[in-house]
Each structure stands twice: as C-alpha cells, then as structure tokens.
From TrEMBL:
Coiled coil: none annotated. SMART domains: PKS_KR. It comes from the Bacteria. Keywords: Oxidoreductase. This is Acetoin dehydrogenase. Transmembrane segments: none annotated. InterPro entries: KR_dom, NAD(P)-bd_dom_sf, Sc_DH/Rdtase_CS, SDR_fam. It comes from Marinobacter halophilus. GO terms for molecular function: oxidoreductase activity. Residues 7-191 form the Ketoreductase domain. Belongs to the short-chain dehydrogenases/reductases (SDR) family.
Length: 271
C-alpha cells in the first residue's frame, strides 16, 4: 500500500489518543474513514477534526464479538470496500497476579486481545477482496518484555504480537494481497493510564503520575510513525525512543533483561 488516497481505513478506539491522531493523519492523506469507539462524545470530536474527507462514526464495544462482525459488514455496506484496519482500542490494568480479580483480567483480555483478534478475523475477507489490504494491530512494549503489576496487560499484548506475526506469515505463504504490521508503542501521552483499573493495594495517583513521567511521545508523533510504517510495509513498528531501547535490550539480553526490570520496578513500583 504505497498510496493511501481514497483508501477505506477502519480505526477502533478512535475517540481519543493514538486512534484520534491516526484519524487526523489518514484524513490528511485522503483516506475515507470508518471510526469507532464506545465513547460517542470523544468520537464526535474526532469526526469534527477530520474535515475534508468522508468519515463515518460507529459506536462499538470491541469486547463484543458479534458486534465486531456486524460492524465489519456495515462498514463494507457503507463504503463498498475495506483496505486498512487498525485495531487500536485498548485498556490497562495495574495489579499483581495475586490481587487482580477474574473480572478485571477478563476485561483486559476481552478488549486488548480478543478485540484485536475478532477485529482482524471479521475484516480479513474484505481486505483480501480489496486486492490491497493491510492489518495493523496495536501491541505495546509490554508485548516485548514482562513487567511487574502488568501481567494481564502483558498477557494480552504478547498474545497480540504472536497472533499478528503468525498471520503475517500466513498471508505471505498463501500469497494473499494483505500486509500485516504489529505496533509496539512505548509511553504515549494518552488517557489510558487515567482510565486504567487498579488493584486494591495500588496508589492510583502515584501510578498515574509515574506513567505521565515515562510518556515520552505524543499521540500525533505516534500516528505519524505508524502511518510511515504502514507505507513501508514494516512488520514491526516501534513507536518512541523508549520502544527502540526496550527492543534493543530484549534482542541483546534475551531473558536476562529481567534483572534490569526488577531493579527499575523496585525503585518505581514497590518503593
């Protein structure tokens, strides 16, 4: 996909953060946009920012499998084709394995993994039919390394990475006209930390302030990097200097990265 002009792009979680920024960048490149979110007010603001292009808004809960498949059919009916799907919607949880509830664990997995998996599978036939398709699944640097108090988020984002990398190989082996990219953002200045669920022993204010200090990249910069990666057909798109650093450490040290994370966590998460 060398040219995005007049392509139909689907973005979940478009009501804020990276999703909203992606909508803006893709609109500027001439994409026709199918934007979804559970937050209708935020979604309306995104739509208003995307002037000069065809854009439709859809209320969508990506944890609802049937709703995602219905959404895929509705988008096809509304636009006549689908070229680009960005499974971006996500949530966060800060809690240890011992204290997190089953409901919180399921909440994260239903949105961060199953939302991506169902979003990919629902749209894949339409992307193949387009003759020029691309799936972009948002993982995280926490899909590269394990971090204390992030086990549920780690589980979802590692799963997204494995699912996406396997799909890329399948599309190539089957000679299908669909490219696949997995995105690993570092700290991005979005509302995900403010809307995150916390374990009972967590200091929510301190956790969120800590995240804000580590958020090195704006959503707008993240969107620019992701779109450049799409146009270059990059299989792995790293977003932010922290993402590049974590990827390098992981490649260099393998599982030996863990003592570094333990020292960081002892100082910042367990002090």
């Amino acid at each position: 996909m060398k040219d995005l002009n007049n392509k139909v792009a689907v973005i979940t979680g478009a009501g804020s953060g990276i999703g909203r920024a992606l909508a803006g960048v893709l609109a500027a490149k001439g994409c026709r946009l199918a934007l979804s979110d559970v937050n209708e007010a935020g979604l309306a603001e995104t739509v208003a920012d995307c002037g000069g292009t065809e854009v439709r808004a859809y209320k969508l809960d990506v944890s609802d499998r049937d709703a995602i498949y219905a959404h895929a059919e509705q988008v096809l009916a509304d636009f006549g084709a689908v070229n680009l799907v960005i499974n971006n919607a996500g949530v966060a949880l800060s809690a240890t394995v011992r204290e997190m509830t089953d409901d919180d664990f399921k909440w994260v997995m239903d949105i961060d993994f199953w939302g991506v998996a169902h979003g990919t599978r629902a749209f894949l036939p339409h992307l193949i039919a387009s003759g020029d398709g691309h799936v972009v699944n948002i993982s995280s640097v926490f899909g590269l390394i394990g971090v204390p108090k992030q086990s549920a988020y780690n589980a979802a984002k590692f799963a997204v990475r494995g699912f996406t990398e396997a799909l890329r190989q399948e599309m190539k082996l089957e000679n299908q006209p669909v490219q696949i990219s997995c995105v690993h953002p570092g700290g991005i200045r979005t509302n995900i930390a403010n809307s995150a669920r916390m374990g009972k022993s967590e200091n929510a204010v301190a956790q969120r302030k800590g995240f804000d200090k580590l958020a090195m990249t704006t959503p707008e910069k993240a969107a620019e990097i992701i779109v450049k990666g799409i146009l270059k057909n990059e299989s792995r798109i790293l977003v932010g200097p922290d993402a590049w650093g974590i990827d390098a450490i992981n490649r260099l040290l393998g599982s030996a990265y863990q003592p570094l994370v333990e020292r960081f966590s002892r100082k910042n998460l367990y002090s």
